Amino acid sequence: MKSKKPHKRKLKRSGAAPGTLEYTGERRLEKPELMRIRYNQQELEETKNPSGDGAFITSPDSVFWFDVMGLHDVQLIEHIGQQFNIHPLVLEDILHTQQRPKFEEYGNDAFVVAQSLIYDPTTHELNTEQIAIYFGENFLITFQENEDDTFKPVRERLEVSSGRIRSRKSDYLTYALIDNVVDNYFEVLDRFEGRMEELEAEITNNPTRETKENIYHLKFQMLAMRKAVMPLRDAVNKFSRCESNAVDEATGIYLRDLYDHVLRIADLIETYRDMLNGLIELYHSELSLRMNNVMQVLTVITTIFVPLTFLAGMYGMNFDNIPELHFRNGYFYLWGFMIAIAVALLFYFKKKKWM
After folding, report:
1. Residue 20 belongs to some domain of the structure
2. In angstroms, rounded to a whole number, what is the distance separating the alpha carbons of residues 29 and 33?
3. pLDDT tens profile 113-136
4. Staple 136 to which of 62, 102, 109, 240, CB 3.0 to 4.6 Å?
């Protein structure tokens, strides 16, 4: 399978003023969708595409989660920013979907960027999506590029009234969402490990040029995953040390555990990168071994035919005074001698384990 070239995303206009709102990602939905979830320990309410002046009204007795899917509607993103007094630079980062994972504080609010990764075992492609989260004390807004329900496990946990999420604030919900993204990283790494085992078996049995292309393709995907995980490690660490009013001290325990998970993933990525380098070396070693085997067979064949060619050439010379040419059965004697030499050489090579 040949590697696919990464999609070239639109870049920010050169010279644009800071805070300029311009979507630079891929338009994956015809129309953006908004899901509002209001919950507390007693009740849960979900509203799809709320409209009217009260769509973004919050109250201190509940936590409000606004999930935006589809970012190409710049006016909608700008309207949300006005409703929650979000800094223009944050809105710019939301629409510029090539952001490095990070965590930033804005007064009593905070902003998190992460990369969601999904590995397709059919095409062996790694799909990425930027996840942006902006949250305050009793509200949280998530921004996704497509309609894939990345946060489905978290939604299912919210439906359980006795769950920990329902009894805590938006900071814990933010932790749960990022933790869900990180859990997907483990699944991707499991897929990578299985793919590496397939390539190792392919190298051992029948390495081809396509095998080498697949190895480099997987190495490229590992590099893309590394770019998503390494900055997230610093972002989660900064999140766990946040002193904003929007983050409870009790949530810090879970954030430190999440930080440990990201560290494990970072270590696994480095290990798998070394394993991929080992696969490349194994590929070249296997090709060299196969070439050596071919050369060995050709050398054996050449060695056998050298004395036979010498005898045939010697008795094929146009001289009259070659005594053996006048033997009655000289032709058969020569054939017998040549066959004996060939058999003797084959036996010798076999004994020396050269073939």
Report:
1. no
2. 9
3. 999 998 888 888 898 889 999 999
4. 109
